[in-house]
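Why run this: before we spend reagent on co-expression, it is cheaper to look at a predicted model of the complex and decide which construct boundaries make sense. The entries below are exactly what would go into the expression plan.
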Amino acid sequence: MKKNYLKKASLILAAAAMLSVCGLTASAESVAPADEVTVCTATADEAFTAVYDYGTDYDYDIIQTADSSSNEKESKNWVEIILIALGVSILVTGIVVYIIYRGYKYNGMTEPYEYKDKAPLELTEREDVLVDVHVTSRHIERNKN
Amino acid sequence: METVSYKCLNCEAPLQYSAKKLKFFCEYCRSEYTEEELKKHFGSLDEQLNATQAVSEEAQVDDVPEGFEDFASGTVMYTCQSCGAEVITDKTTAATFCIYCHNPVVISNRLTGAFKPDKVIPFKFTEEDAENKFFEFCKKKHFLPKTFVARAELNKIRGVYYPYWMVDSKKDGFIFATAKKVRTWVVGDEEYTETKTFRCKRAGIIDFKDFPHPALKGEHSKALKYVNPYDSNEFRGFTMAYLSGFLAEKRDTERTDVQGDVDEELKDYSKKIYLDTITGYDSVLVDSVDVKTLQESWQYAMMPVWMMNFNYEGKDYLYAMNGQTGKNYGELPLDKKKLALFGIILFVALLLLSILGGYFLL
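The model came back. C-alpha cells follow.
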C-alpha cells in the first residue's frame, strides 16, 4: 500500500502545533500562577520597596495585586509569542513545501509564446479619462507612553 | 505503403541527420552530405512524392485475430526496404526505424499532399546532449528518489519530430479597463488617502507571428505546448531527409479542429499585450476586451523534441526537451518521505527561531 507521507507530515505538524500550544501555555501557568506570586518575581525596585515597607506596616495586599497582574501580562505575552511563532512556522513551511511540490509536478510550465518579441502592437487609440476622485481620512493612534 | 530510405551514395547504408555536425551522415562509411548535396541527388524523389496526394485510406493490418480489432484499427503495416520485414506502426507515425534491422524509414505518403509540412526546425541537440542535460537537470532536484537517478531506471530517450500549426494572425481589437492611482499623506494625527479612478481604452493592431499550436491530439499535447518557444528564425523548407534517423508523427488535426482554441489563446495574449500599455497605475481591472481577425495564414511545421517516458512506483512520467533550445518540461517523481522530513525539520527550526526572536524582543 502506497503511503502518503505528505498527509502524514501535515498531521504531525498539526499535532505538534497543538501540543506546543497546550504544553507551553500550561508550563507558563505553572511557573507563574497568579495566586502564588511572591516578591521574588517582581522587579528589583518593587522587591526593595516591598521588603522595606513590610516592617513599616505597609499594605502588603496592594503590592501583591500589582505583581499578579504583571505576571498575568507576562504569561499572556508568552502565549501570544508562541501562537505567532506557530502561525509563522506553519505558514512558511507550507509555502516552501508547496513551492517544491509544484516544481516537480509542473516543471517547465513557463510562457510558451514570446509575445513581446513576436507580436508587435501598433496602437491606434490611447485614452485615459479621470472619472472619479475621492479622499478618505483616518485618525492615527499615537502611543501615549 | 510507400516508404523512403535516404541511402548513402557510396555504400547504400541509411543516412541520418546529425544534430552535432548539422549535416547528413552515413554511420558506416562516415560520408557526410550537406542539405544542398542531398537535394541534388534526392530532390527529384521529394518532388515526385510531394506531387502525389496523401493516401486517405491506408493499408490496414489484415487477418486480425479476435479481440485485437481495436489495436488493428489504429495500426498500419509497411514493408522495410532494407530487410523486407513487415513492420506495424500506428496511424500517425511518419518516420520510424525498422524494429528488425534498425533501418531509418520515412513513411512518405503520410507527408505528402495536404500532409506535407511547410517547414521544419532540425535537431540541434544530439541524443547524448539530451541525456546529459536531463541528468544535469536531475542533479539540481534534491527531492528526487535516489533509485530514480540511476541511469538503468530510465528508458531510452528518443528524438521525435512533432507536428505543429504555425499561425500568423493580424488582429484588430480594443480593451477597456478601470485603473486606480492611490496617494497617501499625513497631516498631524490624520492620514489621508486619495483614490483616483481612470477609465482606460487601448485599441490597435497586433501582428502575431509564428504562434505555435500542437497539431496532434492526445496525452502529449501539454508537453508539446510547454517545450515551446522555438527560435523561428531557424525554420527551413521541409524535406523528408531531415526525418531520417528520428521518429516523426504526422498531424491528426485539421485547421478547423483547433481554430477555436487558437482564437481563444490569441485573445488572451491580446489582452496581455494591451494591458502592458496601461502603465503608471496601482491597479488595473479589465472591463472588456475584443479582437477580430484581419488576416490569417496557417502553416504546418515539424519541430524537434527529445522525449523520455519512465515509470516510477507504478506511475508513468513524461519528460520532454526542446530539440532546438534545450528547454525542459515534464513531471518528475518526488520523494514524499524526504519532503515530509524536510518540512518537519524546517517547521521545528522556524518555530524555535520565532520563539527565541519573540523572547528577545519581549
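Helices of chain B lie at 35-51, 69-73, 127-139, 146-149, 221-226, 255-275, 336-361. Residues 15-116 of chain B form one domain. Bring this page to Monday's planning discussion.
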